[in-house]
Amino acid sequence: MLTVNKLTVDFGKRLLFDNVSFSVSASEHVALVGRNGAGKSTLLKLIAGIEEPTSGEISFPKDCHIGYLPQVMKLKDGKTVYQEVEEAFEHISDLEKEVEDLTREMQNRTDYESESYQDLLERFSAKSDAFMLSQSGGNYHAQIEKTLCGLGFDREDFDKPTSTFSGGWRMRIELAKILLKRPDLLLLDEPTNHLDIESIRWLENFIASSKGALILISHDRQFLDNTCKRTIEIELGNLYDYKVNYTRYVSLREERLEQQKRAFENQQKMIKETEDFIERFRYKATKAVQVQSRIKQLEKVQRIELDEIDERQMNFSFRPASPSGEYPVVVEDMGKAFGDHQVFDHANFMIKRGEKVAFVGRNGEGKTTMVRCIMGDYHDYTGTLKLGHNVELSYFAQNEAQELDPNLTVFDTIDRVAVGDIRTSINDMLGAFMFGGEESLKKVGVLSGGERARLAMIRLLLRPANVLILDEPTNHLDIRSKNVLKEAIMKFTGTVILVSHDRYFLDGLVDKVYEFKHGKVIEYLGGMPDYLEHSTFSDDIAVQKAIDDTQETDDKKVSEAAVDYEKQKQLRALRKQVERTIEKCEKRIKELESQITSMEEDMNRPNAQLGESDYIKYNKAKEALDKEMNLWEEASIELEELQ
């Protein structure tokens, strides 16, 4: 499906890829991992043809259809959600036009025996079969509805202009288009960043049932495990290929590095002992033979080199303030509406000091609205919301990283907001977040998404707090950085409210889960396991089942048509093979008949002098002719049956 051969990308000051090669077969699902800035997104752009390598080549079959979802998209307006996604089926009308054009051409041709006319028939047959296959699914509108609902859209959203949706929702629109096109090779760069847990689970099931190849970049560990069985790691310009899922890769990677380290240390010990022996007895005649033997032995040693590993990682802890009251946040019979739209109503919960809780649910269900009420941005809600004694809030907004000034340097970004004694520790903080030295002089505009997320996190640490509210803090962070963040939150003695869709990140971290859905706030006291087991996913499953049931007959038609199309395709290939056999037989028969005629003329010539070898040659030619005639006859019968 895909072959990457001796790929090098050199940015002058930085060698991103150094002569790397790998291949991906059809239907193979590959996770592309590595820390932020390692080159994962660049590699997808190279495969998609958006960027060019310094050297090397990337190849795939001529008719390979690639679907590419980048992290950041240039979106266009002017259509509704449904109209935009419907573009995925433009190929159906294109196929119909091709079939009509070929039909007209056939009607105007009379050279039925010519090779070009036979090629025309082949093209017409292939295109008409493909068109019939695309039509046999019946109403493709149901496929659009199923995909949009799976990605979190309500049916009333279908006719809304795309311009009325946020960037995250518009990413879902583009993802729906790409999935519905069913590409041969799917390239997804951080598709879960703007998806809620329900949509992520739907996407996992979609990918699992997909027959195409996939290369996926994601920092959602559970999503990687559930979708990919092969992991390619990018580390300092090199690629390391593991034929396992992400969790198993982590284990094997540690084993590989440990084994390599032990082998290196043992070899270094052996080399030193050998060099010491040579040095000690170099000038002793009685040891001359042993010394020369050791020198030759040393020359033959293939030196083990340790793989270069980027071991940098964030290192920090949240600055605690003095303790708050026993219940920092208390919500009683609370409701919030925007005009006629009731976001949530009759919400009741209490968060105890030191608890770590998660707000989960689909985007737009009220999680961020509740957070903004707690922060004091909204006051026009019903019911009551009380903050406890001595509460000091610190808030990390969902778009925190995007709001950074791209024209400032990393250092200036922090320097401009730091006040008090913390200013003396700016360089130490930057170093702890991997922005030490020259990295601190980089402009924000050139930073990757993960680097921006790390920089935004520093600003959160500039003031002490006893209640942290983190809205999607893991977006764009690589898995190593997320693990450090998770550990820092676990060690924090204050209260934490997390808005996140990352199941692995939340698992084992939060004590309680509050699900925002259909205007209600539902409490799950057993953390993520309790939520995932007993949440209202079943409601959506029932709705989806109703859609699926209406399509059961059409799906069967698609399946039957697909089988029929494959049979027709195989039949045409077999017919062509038999025709070539007949053609070869006829050519060989003509040659043999000419040889036999020539030999018979020689044999019938007066005074002909013929030896035994001439008669043997003549008889062999006759036998060969009989054999070719039998083959021709069998092939002709087979062709008649195929036609």
TrEMBL record:
Limits of the ABC transporter domain: 2-261, 329-543
InterPro entries for this protein: AAA+_ATPase, ABC_tran_Xtn, ABC_transporter-like_ATP-bd, ABC_transporter-like_CS, ABCF_ATPase, P-loop_NTPase
Classification via SMART domains: AAA
Lineage: superkingdom: Bacteria
Coiled-coil spans in chain: 85-112, 568-642
S-adenosyl-L-methionine as UniProt keyword: no
UniProt cross-references to CDD domains, sorted A to Z: ABCF_EF-3
Keywords of this entry: ATP-binding, Coiled coil, Nucleotide-binding
Residues in the signal sequence: none
NCBIfam families, per database record: ribo_prot_ABC_F
Protein name, per record: Ribosomal protection-like ABC-F family protein
Organism: Falsiporphyromonas endometrii
